[in-house]
């Protein structure tokens, strides 16, 4: 296979051979305003992308102006977010597994063998050590395989349709955070999006009912949801929703329940508490219909409907106002849903198409963050019951806006219909506007070529990720490589049987050099894109002039506007003590001559065509610096949040580790018939101010003027047992003492009980666990 063939966007055709459904291609997916772009402009943009990419990798000329420094800072920050996102994904997967296992331990329902299995999960290092494959031949073959999986996403798209829900998590980890793990790098992002396009095309072809499209929970829908949780999606959710959700969760006492049955039950309970008796016309057990007809219930619900509507309007406006900030990839997926809908259902109304777009944008992206904001790192604590219920209502209202609402299961939601009617057109316009983004196929082809030409493509991946992916490909090889002589078939045959997973302690991160055996020349590549030699010279000249001007001190006379390109080239070409700039300057002189001889530019008008494009590019770069700084500030906040979530997950794992150690120690002691003497740890002293600063004290009833005299003592007489005492300076005995078991704290956390009441102060359960882990970690 040639590079050109290999670099084409993943086939939009279905794997089905008898389908008449026309696949999506670059030619038929332009948005409504793409058509005005001329072919020459299109090629200019592509070649600019090519030379911009190549110069970005060119270490010869290190530009160090303000923009370059801002870009480097931003690039480093994006790399950190991508790396940390993967670590969090792996940790979350482990915590989910351990949550269920520890619950059994707490209930004393886990055999010793299972305890050992859980221990193997906990004893593994979180950060893998670096390693390598046993031999170079394996490294090369796997490098070839993963290059194909990355550059031809149709294979992963096909695999996603074949795997089970049980297999999808490990595949998601490898696909989203390793193969396409550079979340802010255009080539990998665009390759991942072509995979989604292939997946969506197949779904539209094989789903017979319009109403069933994108609705079921499948490996594909799980993958789309995970995509929205990458760095760009997380940044958008934080910017748009965090402030509104935080404001709402502070209203702990505001009850906006509108289910008549629940409102009736709460009302009856309150009347009974206040008066001691219930009137005869208010029985305890009633039907939903009886509750809905009660005049008092209606009077309670009416103002709540207005409050809910006002809150939902605020959320909707915040989302719509941030249209331009919506991540490109999410908008592009919305565009594919629109285009595929119109192609398969030419008579479909915009309303029906918006229902499908909303099924992705609201159902998979926005609403999960509204309903579970803590897991999306938008707030620090799980909301109380009342604001939690309000958030659920807001999510339902937004979903009903995007869908054709049915009130069969929840007839009381029909009272919110005025909100739907008032905002339906506004919401539909927003969803169609989401789709108005340009395609990326030409720049992806350029990115792929640059990556190949520089030969520096690498993939950092763990041994178990490699082996698990190999095993899945092998398991489904009859479907994925029906032709054994296909490139994928050949590679799988050469690799042989997939090795088993190594024990997690022996898992290592390896660096795979990615390359393809099936390459072609740059001439063939440019010919396939219909790019002329004049275009190549023009864009090389433009790119090199921009590099030179950015490297020359800004006060230098030669770079004043309007630019004299011949003088700029001459100044660079005669510079002393800078061989790289001299080489660039001489090359620019050659390019000016060649382009003049080809009739592309004219010396008589001071090379106006090239000069204007160079000046426009420099003007664009000037505004780019501010955008870089602005984006860095936003992403700094996202990175901080991701790091905090990572610390919480690590703390949770450490808690489980300590608890399991205690349980196993006790089991071994019982089996041996003796109890070893355990050394008491502590006591450790903490002031009220210190625990408040660390977030351990969630709230305090101690008067402000006395808090300076309050301190706490923590000690651990036995593994898994803790004593917390509260003291007042000058008094010999403590004011109170509390005995705690690690089991109790874990059970409180599992049940969603966030506060531990010490009468005078309320402790945050999660922060107490973190403190105990840090101070009382016993030797394992």
TrEMBL record:
A Pfam family per the record: RasGAP_C
InterPro entries per the UniProt record, alphabetical: RasGAP_C (IPR000593), RasGAP_CS (IPR023152), RasGAP_dom (IPR001936), Rho_GTPase_activation_prot (IPR008936)
This protein's GO CC annotations: cell cortex
Molecular functions (GO terms): GTPase activator activity
Bias type Polar residues, positions: 11-32
GO biological process per UniProt: negative regulation of Ras protein signal transduction; signal transduction
Residue span(s) of domain Ras-GAP: 187-403
Region described as Disordered: 1-41
Gene3D superfamilies hit by this protein: GTPase Activation - p120gap, domain 1
PANTHER family according to UniProt: GTPASE-ACTIVATING PROTEIN, RAS GTPASE-ACTIVATING PROTEIN WITH IQ MOTIF
Protein name: Ras-GAP domain-containing protein
Species annotation: Exophiala spinifera
């Amino acid at each position: 296979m040639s590079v050109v063939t290999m670099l084409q966007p993943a086939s939009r055709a279905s794997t089905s051979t008898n389908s008449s459904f026309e696949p999506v291609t670059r030619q038929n997916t332009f948005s409504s305003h793409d058509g005005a772009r001329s072919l020459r402009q299109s090629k200019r943009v592509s070649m600019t992308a090519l030379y911009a990419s190549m110069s970005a990798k060119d270490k010869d000329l290190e530009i160090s102006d303000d923009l370059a420094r801002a870009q480097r800072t931003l690039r480093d920050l994006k790399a950190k977010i991508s790396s940390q996102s993967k670590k969090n994904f792996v940790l979350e997967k482990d915590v989910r597994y351990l949550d269920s296992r520890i619950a059994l331990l707490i209930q004393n329902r886990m055999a010793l063998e299972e305890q050992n299995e859980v221990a193997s999960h906990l004893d593994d290092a979180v950060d893998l050590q670096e390693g390598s494959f046993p031999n170079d031949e394996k490294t090369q073959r796997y490098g070839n395989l993963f290059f194909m999986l990355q550059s031809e996403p149709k294979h992963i798209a096909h695999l996603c349709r074949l795997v089970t829900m049980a297999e999808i998590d490990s595949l998601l980890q490898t696909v989203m955070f390793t193969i396409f793990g550079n979340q802010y790098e255009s080539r990998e992002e665009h390759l991942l999006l072509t995979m989604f396009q292939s997946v969506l095309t197949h779904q539209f072809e094989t789903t017979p009912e319009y109403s069933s499209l994108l609705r079921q929970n499948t490996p594909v829908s799980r993958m789309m949801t995970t995509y929205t949780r990458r760095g760009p999606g997380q940044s958008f959710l934080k910017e748009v929703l965090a402030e509104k959700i935080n404001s709402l969760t502070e209203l702990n006492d505001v009850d906006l329940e509108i289910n008549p049955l629940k409102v009736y039950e709460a009302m009856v309970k309150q009347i009974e508490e206040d008066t001691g008796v219930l009137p005869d016309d208010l029985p305890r057990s009633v039907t939903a219909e009886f509750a809905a007809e009660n005049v008092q219930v209606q009077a309670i619900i009416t103002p709540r409907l207005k409050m809910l509507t006002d809150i939902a309007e605020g959320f909707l406006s915040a989302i719509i106002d941030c249209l331009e900030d919506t991540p490109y990839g999410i908008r592009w997926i919305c565009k594919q849903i629109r285009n595929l809908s119109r192609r398969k259902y030419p008579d479909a109304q915009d309303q029906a198409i918006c229902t499908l777009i909303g099924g992705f944008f609201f159902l998979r992206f926005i609403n999960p963050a509204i309903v579970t904001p803590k897991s999306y790192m938008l707030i620090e604590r799980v909301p109380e019951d009342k604001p939690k219920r309000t958030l659920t209502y807001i999510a339902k209202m937004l979903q009903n806006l995007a869908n054709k609402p049915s009130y069969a299961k929840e007839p009381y939601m029909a009272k919110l219909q005025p909100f739907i009617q008032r905002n339906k057109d506004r919401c539909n316009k927003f969803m169609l506007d989401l789709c108005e983004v340009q395609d990326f196929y030409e720049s992806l082809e350029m990115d792929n070529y640059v990556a190949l030409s520089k030969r520096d493509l690498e993939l950092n991946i763990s041994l178990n990720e490699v082996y698990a992916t190999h095993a899945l490909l092998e398991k489904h090889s009859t479907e994925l490589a029906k032709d054994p002589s296909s490139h994928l078939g050949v590679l799988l045959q050469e690799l042989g049987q997939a090795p088993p997973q190594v024990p997690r302690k022996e898992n290592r991160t390896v660096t795979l050099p990615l390359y393809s055996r099936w390459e072609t020349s740059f001439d063939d590549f440019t010919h396939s894109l219909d790019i002329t030699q004049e275009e190549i010279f023009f864009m090389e000249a433009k790119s090199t002039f921009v590099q030179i001007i950015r490297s020359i001190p800004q006060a230098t006379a030669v770079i004043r506007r309007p630019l004299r390109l011949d003088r700029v080239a001459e100044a660079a070409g005669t510079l002393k003590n800078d061989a790289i700039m001299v080489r660039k300057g001489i090359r620019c002189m050659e390019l000016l001559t060649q382009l003049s001889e080809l009739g592309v530019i004219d010396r008589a008008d001071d090379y106006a065509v090239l000069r204007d494009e160079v000046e426009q590019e420099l003007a664009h770069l000037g505004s780019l610096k501010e955008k870089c700084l602005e984006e860095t500030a936003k992403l700094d906040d996202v990175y901080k949040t991701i790091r905090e979530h990572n610390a919480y997950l690590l703390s949770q794992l450490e808690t489980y580790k300590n608890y399991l150690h205690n349980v196993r120690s006790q089991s071994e002691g019982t089996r041996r018939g003796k109890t070893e003497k355990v050394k008491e740890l502590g006591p450790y002293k903490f002031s009220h101010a210190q625990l408040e600063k660390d977030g351990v004290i969630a709230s305090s009833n101690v008067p402000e003027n006395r808090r300076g005299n309050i301190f706490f003592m923590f000690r651990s007489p036995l593994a898994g047992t803790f004593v917390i005492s509260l003291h007042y300076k000058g008094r010999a005995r403590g004011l109170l003492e509390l005995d705690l078991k690690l089991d109790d704290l874990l059970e409180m956390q599992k049940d969603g009980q966030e506060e531990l009441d010490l009468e005078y102060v309320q402790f945050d359960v999660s922060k107490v666990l973190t403190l105990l882990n840090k101070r009382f970690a016993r030797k394992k």
